[in-house]
Design brief:
Blueprint: E1 4-8, H1 12-23, E2 27-32, E3 43-46, E4 49-52, H2 64-73, E5 80-84, E6 87-91, E7 94-97, H3 109-127, H4 136-161, H5 182-189, E8 202-206, H6 212-219, E9 225-228, E10 235-237, E11 242-244, E12 247-249, E13 251-254, H7 258-261, H8 270-277, E14 281-292, E15 302-304, E16 315-317, E17 331-340, H9 348-360, E18 369-382, H10 388-402, E19 405-406, H11 418-438
The structure holds flavin-adenine dinucleotide.
Length: 449
């Protein structure tokens, strides 16, 4: 039996699910607060340059079905550009291959010894049964050892997360950061090439339209209604089904950031509401930079800037390398990401100073900048303090047992990329099929994050 389904939020989570459920014959309405679909996957054109709003986005997935779905939304293989990932760390005056473990032989000899020595020590401690610590700061030492911690991991992570790493939970890295085999570390240390992160060694990007092209491809031709400019005010369970601002639905699926939508949920118990209020995002200012360029920039994908002296940006994307259409002829483009906790109020002087920092780091020539703009995303990363794992477990448990569905990067507070959001949408599609078949109220059960 087809269901009438409300989806809150039209980021990639909301629109991918809407498209799938529309294909299955359900009647779907997507409610979006802003003027158009896209969320963190939005792109924009400034002075003829195309930029992504929330920092550099690439298309990749460990899952073939998800990868195929993403490409199909961009017009298939002919609609995307394939790139071999080339990432570097600006380590003092050197360019080090990323991941850092694979570039260890490019450091000074002293730093290479520090890193290998610490890695072997940590490896032995783990093999002797030292348990995985709770805090991220201690996890870095436990997994990588003291040398890697001092020379990259700690300064880089302090720059991005803006908190003492010992007060941050390690839960998010479990399963996300693969352990580098000892042999790779040793090979890198003596100067042999190693790869690291196999599934990201190539990636794709839409030929035109920026990353948002994928969202537009999900909306265009999708059999669902998209209502933009609507801030949902009132959601509740009824005796039969649900209501959204007075309209009846069989099911409500939330993908909007939980703290941004919690006030609308009339039936949230007070302790769960308090848990949601305590969920904090880390915000991101993405600085959009267009430059005049007589020659193309080096064939890099993005670089990491771990040290405070390199300016506030932690990562710079060489965005015109992703797709030729991203910058006008004779120009190149970059995006510099700066995280903050709500306090950063960027202006032109601040952005110019950031460009001068990138000039000093050897990234671009500040006097060739022709376009300078920025976008602030309030919800970019998840602030994972030590209380986070238990807090989010309570919130997810309540939603999963309630009959509502909630998923998405901030709809479930999972540290997910868009491919994983689409993977989740595929799981929710199966859940809805089961609901429609049984006509009952089924508890939502998603795979481990
Ligand atoms: C710096 C950075 C780099 C990234 N790089 C990559 C990458 O390379 N590849 C990749 O695949 N992913 C990447 N990601 C992750 C990717 O952006 C997210 O996983 C994905 O966009 C999340 O989509 P979503 O739909 O879950 O959430 P969102 O995009 O946040 O969408 C939520 C939507 O809900 C709407 N909303 C909010 N409140 C309400 C309300 N009250 N009523 C109705 N609607 C509301 C919002 O306006 C928004 O449109 C990156 C993210 C960041 C921050």
């Amino acid at each position: 039996m087809p269901l009438k389904i409300a989806i809150l939020g039209a980021g990639i989570s909301g629109v991918s699910l809407a498209r799938m459920l529309g294909e299955d014959g359900h009647s779907v309405v997507v409610f979006e607060r802003t003027e158009r679909a896209g969320g963190l996957c939005k792109s924009r054109v400034v002075d003829g340059f195309t930029f992504d709003d929330a920092g550099g986005h690439i298309m990749f997935s460990k899952r073939a079905d998800v990868m195929e779905w993403m490409k199909a939304r961009c017009g298939g293989e002919s609609g995307v550009v394939r790139t071999e990932r080339r990432t570097r760390i600006r380590w003092h005056d050197r360019w080090i291959p990323y991941p850092f473990e694979n570039g260890v032989g490019h450091l000074t000899k002293e730093a290479t010894v520090d890193c290998v020595d610490g890695y072997v020590e940590a490896y032995v401690r783990r093999r002797c049964g030292e348990p995985c610590p709770e805090s991220f700061g201690k996890w870095i030492q436990w997994r990588m050892g003291d040398g890697f911690a001092r020379h990259f991991m700690v300064p880089y992570n302090e720059k991005i997360w803006k908190r003492d790493l010992d007060t941050m939970s390690a839960a998010w890295v479990a399963g996300r950061v693969p352990e580098a085999p000892m042999r790779d570390i040793l090979a890198s240390a003596v100067g042999l090439d190693t790869q690291g992160y196999g599934h990201q060694s190539v990636f794709w990007f839409p030929k035109s339209g920026g990353f948002e092209r994928m969202v537009r491809g999900a909306v265009d031709g999708g059999r669902f209604a998209l209502r933009c400019g609507v801030e949902v005010k009132h959601v509740r369970r009824e005796r039969e089904g649900f209501s959204v601002d007075g309209e009846r639905f069989d099911l409500v699926v939330n993908t909007a950031p939980l703290p941004a939508i919690a006030a609308a949920f009339a039936d949230l118990p007070d302790p769960i509401r308090a848990d949601i209020e305590a969920l904090r995002p880390i915000s991101l200012v993405n600085v959009l930079i267009g430059v005049r360029a007589d020659e193309p920039p080096p064939p890099l994908s993005w670089i990491y800037l771990p040290f405070p002296g390199q300016g506030p940006a932690n990562r710079v994307t060489y965005f015109s390398n992703y797709a030729p259409g991203n910058a006008p002829h004779g120009h190149a483009s970059y995006m510099a990401e700066v995280t903050h906790r709500g306090e950063l109020k960027p202006d032109r002087n601040w952005a110019l100073e950031l460009c001068r920092g990138l000039d000093r780091a050897g990234v671009l020539a500040a006097d060739r900048v022709v376009t300078l703009d920025w976008v602030n995303s309030e919800y970019a990363y998840i602030d994972q303090d030590l209380a986070f794992p238990a807090r989010i477990a309570r919130v997810r448990e309540w939603f999963d047992a309630s009959g509502y569905v909630t998923f998405g990067r901030f709809g479930r507070y999972e540290y997910h990329n868009s491919d994983q959001c689409i993977g989740r949408a595929m799981e929710v599609r199966k859940h809805v099929a089961e609901l429609a078949r049984s006509g009952g109220q089924q508890r939502l059960s998603l795979s481990e994050p």
